[in-house]
Amino acid sequence: MEIARWFYDAGIPFHGATYDSFHIMLEAVAQFGPGFRVPTMYELRVPLLTKEVEDTKLEIDNHKKEWAAKGCSILSDGWRDSTVQKDIINFLVNSPKGSVFVKSIDVSEITKDADQLLGMLEEMVDEVGEENVVIHDVLVQNSCKFMQLVQNSCFSAEFMQLVQNSCCLLRYLYGLLDIGKIPKIKECLKNEMFANAFTYNHTKLVNLMRRFTNQRNLHRPAMTRFATSFITFAQMHKQKNNLLKMVLFDEWRGSKWAKEAGGRKVASTFQ
Q1: Comparing C-alpha atoms, which of 49, 57, 139 is closest to residue 94?
Q2: Contact 154, 160 (CB under 8 A)
Q3: Which residue has the higher pLDDT, 231 or 94?
Q4: 4-39: string of b/e by CB count within 10 Å (b at 16+)?
Q5: How far is CA 57 from CA 61, 101, 236, 261, in A?
Q6: Cα distance between residue 246 and residue 251, in whole Å
Q7: Among 146, 128, 131, 150, which Cα is nearest to 74's?
Q8: By CB neighbour count within 10 A (0-12 exposed, 13-18 middle, 19+ buried), where does 126 fall?
Q9: For residue 189, what is the DSSP state?
Q10: Considering only CA atoms, which of 114, 40, 103 is closest in space to residue 75?
Q11: pLDDT at 156 over 80
């Protein structure tokens, strides 16, 4: 109860309890036993923070040795901060030892400038070490518009090949070749979105669904409709047993929805 009160008093997000570091911390305190002294605010702000920064730098140095020994991949994740209306690209480096966050760059002013975008990517390759980067594994944010800009740029043939290969790989890995057009996936998404729309168009049906999913929603809005479809699809898959129970429940069978063509299609989708 005292741990819970600390969460409430300090305004700590509840999902903080899911962090491995939270459990490790409590285990360390428990193993210390009586006489444990909590760190002061000064210790948290200065010596302990300084020590953590030093440990982090040492860990990154160990990762860099791994990059040189076994090679690495540069990963970039482009996203838009809708709060401040900025386009951001996060850069990470991945190797057999794991992934390391390097930096975030605000690209709001250069998203349509191929020279600056590719120059930024080239700087990342130089920073990591061109000799360490596994060329075909360098991943960059991709879009048709970006690729058109790339094709009109004047970078070296070697670097252009690196980016071209990277874009193709990222398309394959993250479905940016529009995998939603693959017949089986297209049909699944079509049925899923129909079931989602039918459910949320009926308030009583939404309440019934939430009873069976322990108050979980199926619909999760995202920045793009394509992403929303897959996130919703994932939620339905996660709740498939509960949704099956719902359409087999007497309240569903005796409802008007079960008699409608749309309701029958929803029941078929959930089964």
Answers
A1: 139
A2: no
A3: 94
A4: eeeeeeeeeeeeeeeeeeeeeeeeeeeeeeeeeeee
A5: 6, 12, 42, 61
A6: 8
A7: 128
A8: exposed
A9: H
A10: 103
A11: no
Residues 42-88: tens digit of each pLDDT? 999 999 999 999 999 999 999 999 999 998 888 877 777 766 678 88
Instruction: Tell me the CB-side half-sphere exposure of residue 114, using CA atoms within 13 A.
Output: 16
Task: Find out whether 7 and 16 touch, Cβ atoms under 8 Å.
Answer: yes
Token pair 């360390």 is found at 28
All structural domains of the chain with their residue ranges: 2-65, 70-174, 180-270
User: According to CATH, what is the number of the domain 70-174?
Assistant: 3.30.420
Residue 150 tokens, joined: 């790339």
Rounded Cα distance between 223 and 81, Å, is: 10
- Mean pLDDT is lowest, of 10-14, 53-57, 107-111, 248-252, for 107-111
Phi and psi at residue 74, in whole multiples of 5°? -95, 125
- pLDDT, residue 145, reads 43
Buried b (16+ CB within 10 A) or exposed e, 188-217: bbebbbebbebbeebeebeebbeebbeeee
